[in-house]
From TrEMBL:
GO molecular function, one term: transmembrane transporter activity
Organism: Galactobacter valiniphilus
SUPFAM superfamilies, alphabetized: ABC transporter involved in vitamin B12 uptake, BtuC
Pfam families (UniProt xref): FecCD (PF01032)
Protein localization: Cell membrane
Name of the protein in question: Iron-enterobactin ABC transporter permease
Amino acid sequence: MRIHRRSAWVGAILAVLVAAAVLVALVLPGAGVQTKDAFGVIFAGQGGFDATVVVNWRLPRVLAAVLVGAALALSGAIFQSLTRNPLGSPDVIGFNTGAYTGAILVTLGGVTGFAAIAGGAFVGGLITALAVYLLSLRAGSSGLRMVVVGLGVAAMLGAFNRWLISVGDLELSMQAAAWGAGSLNGLRWAQVTPVAIALLVFIAAAFLVARRMQPLDLGDDAAAGLGARLGATRLLLLAVGVALTAVSTAIAGPISFVALAAPHIARRITRASRVSPLPVALTGAFIVVVADIVAQRLFDPTQLPVGIVTVTLGGLYLITLLAKEARR
């Protein structure tokens, strides 16, 4: 129950920043609503069309951004601990690509409902995770092997996805390609509510299993010496990490680089020997909410998929990270 003081302060500051970003996303002018009217809806209970825009259109989107960002960040922290590799995130290993494959197969099969696409993404992510784990296990199951196997699986699935889109029906292929960019556009309560409940459950599970990641960071021999059950611990962490990634991808598509960057950023700003899950989750939530605001406003009235913004920022971060690792 020891608490790292700087981590606690950083967590409190990040919570304020996330709340401020959420408020900005709700009150920015647009869709026929002015900022003062949006404030009236939030703080004075104003109704009418303004309430419809703020409560029924913007709020579910912002809630999805917060939960998806937190879930992806926690998933990235879990996989970086499992692989003991700074590049060990679900989008690098290929779980996002597998979820995209599942969604494409469902879409090109003629089923375009949200529940079906979300289910296909979830199943695709789970199957990909299982394949990567089993292939790594055959080779002796180490973090580096899992990253290398995941990169190979992601490359093959990426090529398969492009082939599916090229040979499928034009309209359905365009829908699948748009979903694959990673977008929060058009989300409503009917889609967000069930996914939000699932994400809250898995986020809570990630907080509960966070302590099991600490021995793994010391290496297999030290962890075993401390009494950790390595096989069971890895399977539990893998299940929670895959669930967080799959559910997030199911609602928003593959939003890349949040899982990679958020744990690193949280580790840098807390300066702790181990990163508490709270700063990691809040960092991911802040990144996605701000990225979604940029995606909506950068080329207004045209709205970009939030995944384009995170890929742009995350690509720059990945180059910096690779250059630093090369120097070391």
